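Researcher: Go.
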Amino acid sequence: FVVYDQLPLQRSDCFPAHAYALFNNWMKAIASLGNGLICISRAVEADVRRHLDTLQVRRKRSIRLGHFHLGADIASSKPSDGLSREQELAVDRLQGARSCLIVGTVEPRKGHAQTIDAFELLWTSGAQVKLVLVGKPGWMTDPMAQRIREHMENGKRLFWFERASDELLQRLYTVCTVLLVPSEGEGFGLPLIEASRHGMPILCRDLPVFREVAGGHASY
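Model: Structure:
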């Protein structure tokens, strides 16, 4: 079995109420039935190892643990393409501007609220920097989605691409100035790799998994 993270157990405040029990039962099941668990980072493998100690699953033989890193070769997959006229105009407005790009589902642990708070302070001080969000709305996020959509800077210095094709995402990686990764918890952090493929500077929260993935190629 492949394990992406342990976040529903570590950050239950960021998930629906039923998620903890559901995920815990899933971990018990795969720990009982699986020959091995393959995690998407060394950090997740360490989390899984600690969690298995608490589960105390009875097995006839020990379970094997390992990890691998995700890839970001979008062109070799089946990328989605196309931009709407509105998206084309938004990308044109970002050309030549200073802008920070955040990629990922809008959900509680991703740090959008703190980021928008910070950018509101910047905008109030007159900073001409744009914030670009790419990602669909997730769970427990209705107030945040409403805040973004109704923000006075929406379409001016705040842009939210809720439904972005791979083609649009690649364009944004080339147009925006820096990748911002304020997430409070991740199993890997795929945008770090995607941004690196475009030679894009990265500013991210100081999480062990981000240091594992990005190493010295990011600022923390």
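Model: The chain has a mean pLDDT of 95.
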